[in-house]
Design goal:
FAD, FAD binding, binds flavin-adenine dinucleotide, six-stranded mixed β-sheet, monooxygenase activity, D-Amino Acid Oxidase, Chain A, domain 2, FAD-bd, FAD/NAD(P)-binding domain, 2 domains
């Protein structure tokens, strides 16, 4: 391992925090710079897959995470009239959170990165409050609208580096998601009090272009997401400020008219769930695979490199897989010379790009299956969601079978009967992840 290596992680989301936890265990020095002034929950619940649960098991975090997570046993698809279309078995899915595992002094809050620079000797970032930070390595884990990526691409363009056109095209989205978690409703739904298992209910509205995802959470709460198509006017004013904001009450009224009668399998209408939710966030839904992930001492991970639509619940899992791979390779990096750093990033790209590409293609297919309207959409869904269990199981296994761990922490056996298909990530071998 390179001595006195300093890593700067921009972004304290799932990718940045996961990498921080893994570097902490590797004894590698790091700092997270996060633009938010403090941690803020934005009302989403995340489904983590067996692909990444193994590493948390290895770190001894699984049982603790189980305490506030709930196990998803299946995804069940409903028509608007609550008839079931079909189900996909997702046994062993759980949701978790990471922040408490990173020492407080390693995160600097309120640091919005505006631009970055790098040369043979190091990397530097400049923040909106006038401060700057130096490091040997810069990791851009700052999400889909990554400032690190924009700065990296700008600097590459200045050097006439041939960036693929798709890298510089703006993100396009034509769907939004409203999301929230209700207050405890266990007085209304006593069965929610001690719920440990649930399924994700996916309701495909027929009269209006909405898809609702609802699931029971621990503590009697219900997590919900409502996805819909953007209005023409919104499509024309796509700017970055619009991408993520608390949703104003006034705007919600427009949508509420449409979904007032949209039932959920939990017996409540979507309107009731919204009424029982204090903080509702709005996100734009888009998918994009960036081709250029690294140059010099800078590398992108998570949504900054590959943005998935949430239909398949894979974005956070892919971000954590990035972090596992990056930590393994950094741990083996012999020195902090530019050559060794570039070797690590090249290997990281060789391992992670094909897997992220496959995940994006898969989630785009699922998203189109769910959102296709009319006779063709209904017929396709009835066929695909009622395929024999063995076929859907095989597809789910193919997504989840690669379960990498950290090379430098005591190994743990693979749980379950599905063999692990992920090879160890090593700098000097032909390892690859699936
Ligand atoms: C509705 C919805 C449901 C989802 N459900 C699932 C699911 O069930 N399972 C799943 O696997 N995935 C799911 N996802 C996807 C998942 O949430 C994302 O893929 C994941 O959060 C990406 O993590 P990240 O750390 O790369 O980026 P982000 O979570 O976007 O984090 C980036 C961080 O960087 C910070 N930042 C940004 N710019 C700057 C800057 N200039 N300077 C400093 N800091 C900056 C941000 O404040 C943020 O904290 C869902 C997504 C949505 C929208």
């Amino acid at each position: 391992m390179a001595t006195s290596l300093k890593v700067l992680i921009v972004g304290g989301g799932i990718a940045g925090l996961s990498l921080a936890i893994f570097l902490e265990r590797a004894g590698i020095e790091y700092t997270i710079l996060e633009k938010a002034k403090e941690f803020r929950a934005w009302g989403a619940s995340i489904a983590l897959s067996p692909q990444v649960l193994r590493v948390f098991d290895q770190l001894g975090m699984l049982s603790e995470l189980q305490e506030f997570g709930i196990i998803f046993t299946s995804g069940v698809y409903y028509k608007q009239d609550m008839t079931k279309i079909g189900a996909v078995d997702l046994s062993n899915y759980e949701e978790r959170w990471l922040l408490s595992k990173v020492p407080a002094e390693k995160i600097q809050w309120g640091k919005r990165i505006l631009r970055t620079l790098q040369n043979e000797n190091g990397a530097k970032v400049f923040c909106s409050d006038g401060t700057d930070f130096d490091a040997d390595i810069l990791i851009g884990a700052d999400g889909a609208y990554s400032a690190v990526r924009q700065s990296l691409y700008k600097n590459l363009a200045l050097k006439n580096y041939p960036l693929p056109k798709s890298d510089t095209d703006p993100l396009r989205f034509d769907q939004f998601g409203l999301l929230g978690i209700t207050k405890p409703l266990d007085d209304v739904y006593p069965e929610l009090k001690n719920a440990t298992k649930t399924h994700m209910c996916i309701i495909i509205a027929s009269e209006k272009p909405y898809i609702a995802y609802v699931r029971k959470l621990k503590g009697g709460r219900i997590g919900w997401t409502l996805c819909g198509e953007l209005l023409d006017a919104e499509l024309h004013e796509q700017d970055n400020s619009f991408r993520f904001s608390d949703w104003e009450g006034e705007s919600i009224e427009n949508i509420r008219k449409d979904i007032d009668s949209l039932l959920t399998p939990l017996g409540e209408t979507m309107a009731n769930l919204i009424e029982n939710t204090e903080c509702i966030s709005k996100v734009m839904l888009e998918d994009k695979l960036f081709i250029t992930w690294h140059s010099g001492r800078t590398c992108l991970i998570g949504d900054a490199a590959h943005k998935l639509v949430p239909a398949a619940g894979q974005g956070a899992n892919q971000s954590i897989l990035d972090a596992i791979c990056m930590a393994n390779l950094l741990h083996e990096m012999p020195s902090k010379s530019s050559t060794d750093i570039e070797r690590v990033f090249e290997k990281f790209y060789a391992i992670r790009f094909p897997t992220a590409k496959k995940a994006i293609e898969g989630s785009a297919r699922l998203s189109s299956l769910i959102s296709k309207r009319g006779f063709i959409g209904n017929t396709l869904r009835s066929i695909v969601l009622n395929l024999p269990g063995a076929i859907t199981q095989k597809a789910v296994d193919a997504i989840n079978s690669g379960r990498p761990i950290l090379n430098y922490v005591d190994p743990i056996p693979v749980q379950g009967t599905v063999p692990n298909t992920s090879l160890p990530h090593h700098l000097s071998t032909d390892s690859e992840a699936i």
